[in-house]
Amino acid sequence: SYVLTQPPSVSVAPGKTARITCGGNNIGSKVVHWYQQTPGRAPVLVMYYDSDRPSGIPERFSGSNSGNTATLTISRVEAGDEADYYCHVWGSSNDVFFGGGTKLTVL
Amino acid sequence: EVQLVQSGAEVKKPGESLKISCKGSGYNFANYWIAWVRQMPGKGLEWMGIIYPDDSETRYSPSFAGQVTISVDKSFTTVHLQWSSLKASDSAMYYCARKSDPVVTTSPFDSWGQGTLVSVSS
After folding, report:
1. Are A38 and A80 a contacting pair, CB within 8 Å?
2. pLDDT tens digit string along B45-84?
């Protein structure tokens, strides 16, 4: 088993920078993916392999991963970024681990 | 365009059986892993298991092993999630998701179904 720890909530004013963390034992040795989920919708991939953005995801979204913490950074936050964000890593046996999710609130 | 289309919402009683589906299209269905993910009301994502359609190789999360069955019908490009005896605690939204790369073991889920809401109540 592998535990991923996310803060339950992050609040940020519009135009500021939001940083959502995902903690795990030596997570820097793994690749991390991030999903955004808005109410009533399926999750959407917003960052993969730590810091790659899928097409259609704004450049305001960036990612990093080192040591025991991976971070999804959203610059110049907009109201439309308000959502739940989940990190994801793979285990050694083709098993999947999700973080508990972080609710991003735009003040 | 890659699409995963799930079957509709279900309302069941405890003890009943259920099979929900996830139909893939727009890609070579057989060669991409499909996972099932549970989301209980107001809660986070929980991985249930994953199947490789080409040979039906399946892995289950320890939390769900023995509780559900994941299967595939390649001829209909459809993956199923099945319960033999539902419990009220199975009430949740269930998503299927496609692993983006058939070869890279750590690839992300790049496409998700729209979700199937399962409600179990007496």
Report:
1. no
2. 999 999 999 999 999 999 999 999 999 999 999 999 999 9
Q: With beta carbons under 8 A apart, name residues in chain B contacting A95.
A: 47, 59, 61
Question: Which residues lie below 8 Å from residue A80, measured CB to CB, with a gap of 6+?
Answer: none
Q: What is the pLDDT at residue A94?
A: 83
Q: CA–CA separation, B33 vs B3, rounded Å?
A: 14
What burial class does residue A56 get, using C-beta atoms within 10 Å of its C-beta: 0-12 exposed, 13-18 middle, 19+ buried?
A: exposed
SS3 A74: strand
Q: Do A45 and B44 touch (CB under 8 A)?
A: no
- Closest C-alpha among A48, A42, A78 to residue A60: A78
Q: List, as ranges, residues 54-93 from A with C-beta within 8 Å of B.
A: 54, 84, 86, 88-90, 93
Q: Which two tokens stand for residue B24?
A: 């893939």
CA distance B121 to B117: 13
Are B110 and A100 inside 8 Å of each other by CB?
Answer: no
